[in-house]
Amino acid sequence: MLVIIFCIILLILLVSWAKVNPFLAFLIVSIAAGLCLGIPLGKISGSIQKGLGDTLGSLAVIICLGAMLGKLVASSGAAQKIADVLVNAFGIKYIQLALVAAAFIIGIPLFYGIGFVLMVPLIFSVTYKYKLPAVYIGLPMLSALSVTHGFLPPHPSPSALVVIFHANMGLTLLYGLIIAIPAVIIAGPVFAQFLKKIPSAPLATFRAEELPADKLPGAFNSFFTALLPVLLLGITAAFPFIGNAKDDLHKVIAFIGDPSIVMLIALIIGTYTLGVKQHKSMGHLSIIYGDAIKDISLILLIIGGSGAFKQVLTDSGISNEIASGLQSFNLQPLFLGWLIAAIIRISLGSATVAGLTAAGIVSAMVIKDPGINPNLMVLSIGAGSLAFSHVNDSGFWLYKEYFNLTIKDTILSWSLMETIVAFVGLGGVLLLNVFI
């Protein structure tokens, strides 16, 4: 634990005080962590490469295609049109709540990374046009995405935990919704009231000049194109429950339902609906897409660097040592599961690793003891796996770089928001356990 604390402090000092590029800082700290934690010299570079590859392998295509679609949505005026429709429907006073509700609905079928890159242009369009604080408007939306990612099936970690604990997917989703709604409200709109003064100059790629009303795409076209990934993922997620899941049509649908393929299809269709149909040449659209990639290239490297650091910590076996040490304490099982997941999350940075590691430790206890509700254990560990995201988590850097914040302000907003979600989630689980 001392080594982990030292490495985290070193990373913060390198980035904030010494002004070292975050990607280089991650490489330096990853090597230092590997040496201090006893990983053989010949395996440290392998851990770094694996962490980079695994993290970017799952996110690079989604983030790049999402940035292209986001840039198109912004530059075409679609984001401006969506913002106008929402403001006209709900008014400036309630726009934050409207965006939170939209993010919560979108977040249920979408992976966090896709939801993030799709919602960011909308957040920035609203904040630029109506001169609203970006963090105040944006963080509640991201809290909704984070809660759905950590608590609710069909997201990967909650779904895996349901299988491990032999829980009921439907009941877990129902209980998760009961807990998720107050968690989003408290960590989102309520907490954001204290964040209005945080300065933020969001990523330039989503800053589009305001267009006159007659130059904007139609409302249906704007909403349809921006939300097409949500529609595609929702349809493909429901399709396996219809008919024979082993036939060729289901295999094709499963292929189309892959997040990377969904984003590619959405971008191709968006190229027509918001590009060619709006009388933009393919040459002009190529410039837009190229600019989007340039703007997020450093973000990709930083996220990859955080993955390298996480992998070095994982390969050192520190997560198992932490979990084994905590297991000897005589604690309420639901709280123990939450605590193990939270400490591993804070140490390693990965919510998925924290959740699955904690599940592996307490699974035998849950299966043997009929008094432990497996559905609530899924939610307890899911809540713990979101606790205090900081410099070793790729989500921390995604938020920091897109919103162009300092590390201090990112911790005061993002990290505290995630921690509030974790504690509210725990409170909800323990309260439900009294009545169920």
UniProtKB/TrEMBL annotation:
Keyword line = Cell membrane, Membrane, Transmembrane, Transmembrane helix, Transport
Official protein name in the record: Gluconate transporter
Question: Belongs to which family?
Answer: Belongs to the GntP permease family.
GO cellular component term, pick one: plasma membrane
> In what way does this protein cross or attach to the membrane?
Multi-pass membrane protein
Residues annotated as coiled-coil are: none
User: Keyword Transport: yes or no?
Assistant: yes
Name the residues that span the membrane: 28-44, 56-74, 94-120, 132-152, 172-195, 216-241, 253-275, 296-314, 334-367, 374-391, 411-435
Q: Where in the cell is it found?
A: Cell membrane
Taxonomy of the source species? Bacteria, Pseudomonadati, Bacteroidota, Sphingobacteriia, Sphingobacteriales
Query: Whose protein is this, by species?
Result: Mucilaginibacter glaciei
- Keyword Kinase listed: no
Q: What is its main location?
A: membrane
Q: Which Pfam families does the record cross-reference, listed alphabetically?
A: GntP_permease
Q: Which GO terms describe its molecular function?
A: gluconate transmembrane transporter activity
